[in-house]
Write a structure and sequence with these properties.
The complex is a heterodimer of chains A (238) and B (386). With 238 residues, chain A is an alpha/beta fold. Helix content of chain A is 32%, strand content 27%. Chain A contains seven helices and ten strands. In chain A, a hairpin with a 2-residue loop joins β4 and β5. Chain B is of the alpha+beta class. Chain B starts with a helix and ends in a 9-residue tail after the last helix. The chains are: A alpha/beta (238), B alpha+beta (386). At the A-B interface, α1, α2 and α3 of A face α1 and α10 of B.
Chain lengths: 238, 386
């Protein structure tokens, strides 16, 4: 009988940052489990530790204490090179500020994670065009980011996060820079395209209007997860 | 990834151009100034290079360079001829004499007196007339640059073009008549004075009366005798200094390097070119990287290793370095070509390409190191900061 492995399992994760002579405790023992194919939203006030938590989950920040496993692998136990390769293959990123490379076309931007994973350029661009078509931007593949609207740029960023077929996508405030309608379309895209194939999504957001897209919502406060609930439960008073 | 690196670089045209300009400037200064320096140093021993036939130069042991004339007694010539291994030895006069021009002004000239019998030591290329014409009464051969410039006959009309000295013209050397019987091409000398060739006897008659008038003894070694060994024997037998052509040229260059401010002046120019180039390129490259830190952070977050980013930065530096180096060297070559027939000393040996290439590489490495340090220390978590 196969052992069930969660997409993300965090146990008692702690993280502090030095600020001057003192230190700020960003995570004070976080426990969280996200299942494969699940869309988990992390919500909470500014400075509660959401971004720190997804940075730890994505392997771009080491926690001070506790365990954090992604598909059964603990980044802390990996040599640097293996950690890089694991991240390059298994994790996709969507950023609040899109973070597209301004001198690359939409297709070239989408091809970047494939190229990092050593896919030949021609093949990477073909795949990038395919993914761009999947997010409705097949016609804009040769456009530079500066020639695209905010919503289009975020769709390119989503295509980039998906192009190499990662098993986990972490999104930091993907709709905060977009108007309500564009934000909903981006979420529909994430829900429809990104979750296909048992992919797991963790989305950090403040935007309550998109809570309905989540399978579960983890509420954070002061470095701890205070409640994990479905959108329906979230609407009820705790 | 390398293509992405180049696209990042080319995408910021202003900074790319700034870096290329800085490196072009550095490369230009690091080739053009040393080329002039090498040209000047070559001129310092051009008279030695032009005299290809003799193996050895014999002179007073206190002579420090080719223009530092300390005359010998005439009898020294016979002492040299008496040394075993000497095939032949001839006298050479070299001195600065004043030529009186048609308008009454005077021009210092480098007068070379050749052995009357053999005319050994004559100009390397005759443009008009023959070397043997020196045997004609009062005959002198003038170098073409001197004939066209400093010894040219002034125009009768104020502001008019002077007329170049020609075969058949006369001039006065130390109040004595001389007739131009030939025009020669010689390598320009350090002082750029006109060079006048004549026979030894006539040169001595032009020169002010002095007890000793023999400047050098030019020696040919017998076929089975090494010039270096013969030089040693002459030194031992006569007490005079004896050098091969290369040794005498080296002695002359050493004198200029040690006793004039020329190397320091040019060295300062080259150093300034290097520093300014390094400052412009380094600062611009660092600023370019700093502005792209978020992009490097994104690449890092997506799994690009420090090694990959390092190679990307080195490639960017290498590209701007190559373009800047090529432009700088090209501009120096154009400068040299444009100045080829002027008084300016310019010599561009391949070693200068290596020298400036090393300088530009150093600047690029310096510029890249500043940026690499920043990128290596960059935490990818920066991409989540809005």
């Amino acid at each position: 009988m196969a052992t069930f492995i969660p997409a993300v399992r965090c146990q008692s994760v702690t993280k502090s940052y030095p600020v001057g002579d003192s230190e700020v405790k960003a995570l004070r023992g976080v426990d969280l489990e996200v299942q494969p194919g699940e869309l988990m939203m992390l919500v909470g006030p500014s400075g509660c530790g959401k971004t720190t938590l997804i940075s730890v989950v994505a392997g771009i920040l080491d926690q001070d204490g506790g365990q954090c496993e992604v598909f059964g692998r603990n980044f802390l136990h990996m040599p640097d090179k293996e950690k890089l390769n694991y991240r390059a293959r298994n994790i996709g990123f969507v950023f609040q500020a899109y973070n597209l490379l301004p001198t690359l076309t939409a297709a070239e931007n989408v091809a970047v994670p494939l190229i990092i994973n050593r896919t030949p350029r021609r093949e990477a661009l073909a795949k990038a065009n395919e993914v761009l078509a999947g997010v409705g931007l097949g016609e804009r593949s040769d456009s530079l980011p500066s020639q695209l609207s905010g919503g289009e740029q975020q769709r390119v960023a989503i295509a980039r996060a998906l192009a190499h077929g990662p098993r986990l996508v972490v999104c930091d405030e993907p709709t905060s820079a977009l108007d309500h309608e564009t934000g909903r379309r981006v979420m529909e895209l994430l829900r429809g395209v990104a979750l296909a194939g048992d992919r797991t999504l963790i989305i950090v957001t403040h935007d309550e209007r998109i809570f309905d897209f989540a399978d579960r919502i983890a509420r954070m406060d002061d470095g701890r997860i205070t409640r994990v609930a479905t959108p329906g439960q979230e609407r009820e008073p705790s | 990834m390398y293509r992405i690196a180049l696209q990042m670089l080319m995408g910021d045209r202003g900074k790319c151009l700034g870096m290329v300009m800085g490196l072009t400037f550095a490369s230009l200064i690091m080739t053009q100034q040393p080329a002039i320096f090498v040209g000047l140093m070559t001129r310092s021993y051009s008279f030695i290079s032009d005299l290809a036939l003799p193996d050895l130069w014999v002179m007073d042991p206190k002579v420090q360079f080719v223009d530092d004339i300390k005359p010998l007694q005439d009898t020294e010539l016979y002492r040299v001829r008496g040394v075993r291994g000497v095939q032949w030895a001839v006298p050479l006069f070299k001195g600065i004499l004043k030529a009186r021009l048609a308008n009454g002004t005077f021009q210092s000239c480098n007068v070379i007196g050749l052995d009357d019998a053999t005319l050994v030591g004559g100009p390397p290329v005759m443009l008009q007339g023959r070397l043997e014409d020196l045997r004609r009464s009062d005959g002198v051969i003038v170098d073409i640059d001197g004939a066209q410039d400093k010894l040219a006959k002034p125009s009768a009309m104020p502001g008019g073009q002077p007329t170049p000295l020609q075969v058949g013209d006369t001039l006065e050397l130390n109040d004595k008549r001389a007739v131009v019987v030939g025009i020669a091409k010689v390598t320009r000398t350090f002082q750029s004075q006109p060079v006048i060739y004549t026979t030894f006897t006539r040169a001595v008659s032009f020169a002010p009366r002095e007890r000793k008038l023999l400047s050098f003894v030019l020696v040919k070694a017998k076929p089975d005798v090494a010039p270096v060994d013969l030089a040693r024997q002459i030194r031992a037998a006569t007490g005079m200094a004896a050098y091969t052509r290369e040794q005498f040229a080296e002695l002359t260059v050493d004198y200029f390097l040690k006793n004039t401010g020329i190397p320091i002046n040019f060295g300062v120019s080259v150093l300034l070119g290097f520093i300014v180039g390094a400052a412009i390129a380094g600062q611009t490259f660092y600023s370019f990287t700093r502005e792209n830190l978020r992009q490097f952070g994104v690449l890092k977050a997506m799994g690009a290793s420090n090694g990959t980013l390092l190679k990307m930065i080195l490639l960017q530096a290498a590209l701007v370095g190559s373009i800047g180096y090529g432009l700088g060297v090209g501009l120096t070559s154009l400068f040299g070509y444009a100045m080829r027939n002027t008084i300016l000393a310019f010599k561009f040996p391949w070693q200068l390409l290596v020298f400036s290439g090393a300088g530009v590489t150093l600047i690029c490495v310096f510029a890249a190191l500043l940026s690499i340090r920043r990128v290596i220390k960059l935490e990818p978590v920066v991409v989540f900061q809005s």
